[in-house]
Specification:
119 residues; mainly beta; 2 domains; four-stranded mixed sheet
Length: 119
């Protein structure tokens, strides 16, 4: 099985598709799209599965849900410098966000969210 993984990575690399150790990662989007990604964790650093991640700007809103490892990825048409990211899940309240991509930088935008148990 190990040789099949190597062959897959080699074929994808030759085809010009970016690859990472965790799998294939699409770092590109259509013109004008902004990719948001990151993790949602509690105050102890434990991943929160099933949290809603909303990216909003005015009346426009895009929503996704975190996976089993607390990670999310969302493609929007919202400019990162004109947006607000909100995380929610019953039994938790958002206690902070950390934008790891500098303001003014274009897609992909990494923003992590911290949530505290309780309302």
């Amino acid at each position: 099985m190990r040789s099949h993984g190597f062959i897959l990575v080699a074929v994808l690399t030759l085809a010009g598709v970016p690859a990472k150790s965790g799998g294939i990662v699409d770092e590109h989007s259509d013109d004008g799209d902004t990719i948001y990604f990151g993790a949602v964790k509690d105050t102890r650093g434990v991943a929160i599965e099933g949290a809603h991640v909303n990216v909003k700007s005015g009346n426009i809103e895009f929503v996704t849900t975190t996976d089993a490892t607390g990670n999310y990825r969302l493609v929007t048409q919202i400019d990162a410098d004109q947006s607000e990211l909100v995380c929610s899940k019953p039994g938790y309240r958002q206690s902070g966000t950390m934008r790891r991509t500098a303001p003014g930088e274009k897609s992909p935008i990494e923003i992590d969210c911290t949530m505290q148990a309780g309302r």
